[in-house]
Amino acid sequence: MTDPKAPHKDFAQRAQAISLLLLDVDGVLTDGNLYFTETGDELKAFCTLDGLGIKLLRRSGIEVGIISGRKTDLVARRARSLGLDLVIQGREDKWDALSEWREQHPVSLNQIAFMGDDWPDLTIMTRVGLALTVANAHPAVAERSHWQSELRGGQGAVRAACDALLKARGDYERLLADYLAPDQEAR
């Protein structure tokens, strides 16, 4: 495992341009382990911290979507619970999947952030405006990212990325204020 690195010197500037955050699933939204029951059912654990971070990003005007090489009903269900419309599953070539989506939804690459953890994610991460990763990312991914969480995939890394984006864009304190009692701001 690599040590999380300091944010890229242009992180804040790059974050200002972001209008879409795309996430890998296994290893980013989950811990990357595949769990199967005796009957062959698959299980995944999603972190609730990540879910709130995604909702906060959406409230700040940044759309969030998923691009995953594997396809499961569990991911579709989690995406629905978070209100995500952009969900692309079962596409091992994630760059081709994103390129096809962009034909119908023109978004500049510098407006896209992608959070991944392993080599298949590099096809997008090395082309978009902001590459984010988890603490336990493959070293080749960590080296090519603009920001790396101190948290592992499935354990709040996405929330940390959302917080970093919100802070860089100046939205963090405004959104936090919605959760504070009115008298707490004076303390």
From TrEMBL:
Q: Which positions are annotated as binding Mg(2+)?
A: 24, 117
Supply the InterPro entries for this chain: CMP-NeuNAc_synthase (IPR050793), HAD-like_sf (IPR036412), HAD_sf (IPR023214), KdsC_fam (IPR010023)
Which top EC class is given? hydrolase
Pfam families in UniProt: Hydrolase_3
Write out the GO biological process terms. lipopolysaccharide biosynthetic process
Q: What cofactor does this protein call for?
A: Mg(2+)
Q: Where does substrate bind?
A: 26
**Catalytic activity annotation:** 3-deoxy-alpha-D-manno-2-octulosonate-8-phosphate + H2O = 3-deoxy-alpha-D-manno-oct-2-ulosonate + phosphate
Task: Give its E.C. classification number.
Answer: 3.1.3.45
Q: Recite the UniProt keywords alphabetically.
A: Hydrolase, Lipopolysaccharide biosynthesis, Magnesium, Metal-binding
Q: Which SUPFAM superfamilies match?
A: HAD-like (SSF56784)
Q: Recorded GO terms, molecular function?
A: 3-deoxy-manno-octulosonate-8-phosphatase activity; metal ion binding; N-acylneuraminate cytidylyltransferase activity
- Cite the record's note on assembly: Homotetramer.
In terms of NCBIfam families, this protein maps to: KdsC-phosphatas
What does this chain do?
Catalyzes the hydrolysis of 3-deoxy-D-manno-octulosonate 8-phosphate (KDO 8-P) to 3-deoxy-D-manno-octulosonate (KDO) and inorganic phosphate.
Family per record: Belongs to the KdsC family.
Q: What is this protein's name?
A: 3-deoxy-D-manno-octulosonate 8-phosphate phosphatase KdsC
Which species is this record about?
Answer: Marinimicrobium koreense
